[in-house]
């Protein structure tokens, strides 16, 4: 299945059932850091929950409506990145992502997102990529900012997490903006 080389130490590959145990162990060992901004760790209690997530992702991939991939760093699963769905009519997708705590601060997610953005524009021929993050999640917000995305707005009270409502900032990048950036670098 789909595999993309990010750099000498890192690659991205579609999650498959055989990855369930390793992915669950990463989620479980990083539960506290991940759950600060995302709900899924509180819904992932056993390997079977991770297996069900992978199965749903593979169905979405088969239906041409997005998918999740694992990020491997030095042959260890480090996190996950995905297209949260693809609006083929509008030519738009949103990228979601998370990293296990031992892999933070290495530039892995910025590199993985760059690879996914290139895939969206060059291979899928989409016209726009969006990334959303909680307003207070400065580390997650830094990724689209580093990649030249434009902050398009803030959705107030976007989601409820741990008995509080979080606002969400939305970033967007068009295919033409990406191509212009690539031509300048």
From TrEMBL:
Superkingdom of origin: Bacteria
Keywords: Transferase
Ranges annotated as spanning the membrane: none
GO cellular component, as recorded: cytoplasm
Pfam families recorded: Acetyltransf_3
GO molecular function list: protein N-terminal-serine acetyltransferase activity; protein-N-terminal-alanine acetyltransferase activity
InterPro entries linked to this entry: Acyl_CoA_acyltransferase, GNAT_dom, Ribosomal_N-acetyltransferase
Domain N-acetyltransferase: 21-167
Keyword Transferase: yes
Protein's recorded name: Ribosomal-protein-serine acetyltransferase
Organism: Paenibacillus rhizosphaerae
């Amino acid at each position: 299945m789909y595999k993309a080389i990010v750099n000498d130490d890192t690659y991205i590959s579609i999650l498959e059932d055989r990855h369930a145990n390793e992915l669950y162990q990463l989620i479980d060992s990083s539960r506290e850091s991940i759950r600060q901004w995302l709900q899924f760790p509180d819904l992932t209690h056993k390997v079977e929950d991770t297996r069900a997530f992978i199965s749903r992702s593979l169905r979405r991939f088969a239906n041409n409506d997005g998918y999740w991939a694992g990020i491997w760093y030095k042959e260890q699963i480090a996190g996950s990145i995905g297209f949260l769905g693809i609006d083929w009519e509008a030519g738009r997708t949103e990228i979601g992502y998370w990293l296990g705590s031992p892999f933070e601060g290495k530039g892995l997610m910025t590199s993985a997102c760059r690879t996914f953005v290139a895939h969206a524009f060059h291979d899928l021929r989409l016209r726009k990529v969006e990334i959303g993050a909680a307003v207070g999640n400065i580390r997650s917000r830094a990724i689209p900012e580093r990649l030249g995305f434009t902050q398009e707005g803030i959705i107030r009270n976007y989601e409820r997490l741990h008995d509080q409502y979080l606002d969400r900032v939305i970033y967007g990048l068009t295919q033409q903006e990406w191509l212009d950036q690539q031509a300048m670098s």
